[in-house]
Design brief:
Layout (H helix, E strand, L loop, with lengths): L13 E14 L13 E13 L6 E4 L8 E2 L5 H8 L4 E2 L8
Parallel strand pairs: 1-5
Antiparallel strand pairs: 1-2, 2-3, 2-4
Length: 100
């Protein structure tokens, strides 16, 4: 069997729920490495995903399929309504650790 394994518990993750949603944020302010204030973020894209869980420790993973397109994007006129309809679990405000 191949799959996604928990590095802590050495168990394979199990599907907890298929068809969950999360929102991706985008920065609206330029980072300034000399200041401690965090970047300001806003809504960007809504994604569909699956929720996995480690049966031993309960750690959760949200994964999307390869080549998947976003459900909606911020520039679409009905974006706010679409996000409300799908009730995303969370919003990811992260630029992959990139700094200026």
């Amino acid at each position: 069997m191949s799959g996604i394994a928990c590095a802590k518990c050495h168990k394979f993750f199990r599907v907890k729920k298929i068809g969950v949603f999360f929102e991706e944020g985008m920065p609206v302010s330029d980072p300034d490495a000399s200041k401690p204030e965090p970047r300001v973020w806003t809504s960007y894209k809504l994604w569909a995903a699956d929720l996995l869980e480690c049966p031993a420790c309960g750690a959760e993973l949200v994964i999307t399929g390869p080549g998947q397109q976003p459900v909606a994007e911020h520039y679409q006129p009905d974006y706010v309504e679409t996000v409300a309809k799908y009730s995303p679990l969370f919003r990811v405000d992260d630029d992959g650790g990139k700094r200026p």
